[in-house]
Design brief:
Blueprint lengths: L7 E6 L6 H13 L2 E7 L10 H15 L16 E6 L4 H8 L3 E6 L2 H17 L5 E5 L9 H9 L10 H11 L1
Parallel strand pairs: 1-2, 1-4, 2-3, 4-5
Length: 178
């Protein structure tokens, strides 16, 4: 029983939009694993505000706003290839993790109410493929009330959302309002 020689974490979610809380989890994952792949999964129960392509662009922009050193001088990979962004559809989280060669799956926890759903997901994932452990990070206290849904709701009511999201996401909301 040993750690994988090179670790790669999959952090999946709807990221509609990416929030400062998501960035907190990405930062923790980058400090823990050799590589991190952030993937937008399609949730049939949710209607997207931003397209998958726009969400991918907002993830990259938000990462660079949070960590300017993330953008390689060549303009390509984030953190010299340690951070990638993608999407997965019509397959399970575990199947996608296998496809990209992930050694771990990262999940974020904000509050106790998240635990029940994460506990169920953990149990299912472990039954499907116990070789890919799920790791949970608890976000910093300042992000406990941050969610994509909250950003959408507050923006719809004309409230400021800068404390929830990065400037590129604020601009994307403003552009949608036209």
């Amino acid at each position: 029983m040993r750690k994988a020689a090179r670790t790669k974490a999959l952090y999946a979610g709807s990221f509609d939009p990416i929030t400062r809380g998501h960035l907190d989890i990405i930062g923790k994952a980058l400090k823990t694993f050799d590589a991190v792949h952030v993937a937008i999964g399609t949730n049939v129960r949710k209607v997207r505000t931003f397209s998958v392509e726009e969400s991918q662009r907002l993830i990259v922009a938000s990462v660079v706003e949070q960590w300017p050193q993330a953008q390689a001088a060549s303009g390509g990979a984030l953190f010299d290839g340690a951070l990638g962004v993608g999407e997965y559809t019509n397959q399970s989280l575990i199947a996608y993790a296998r496809q990209i060669g992930a050694s771990h799956i990262v999940r974020g926890l904000r509050e106790a109410s998240d635990f029940g759903e994460e506990f169920r997901l953990h149990g299912v994932a472990e039954r499907i493929d116990p070789s890919i452990p799920m790791v949970h990070f608890i976000c910093e206290a300042q992000f406990l009330h941050v969610s994509s849904s909250m950003a959408k709701e507050l923006d719809a009511m004309g409230e400021g959302i800068g404390w929830l999201v990065m400037p590129s996401v604020e601009k994307a909301f403003a552009a949608r309002r036209g």
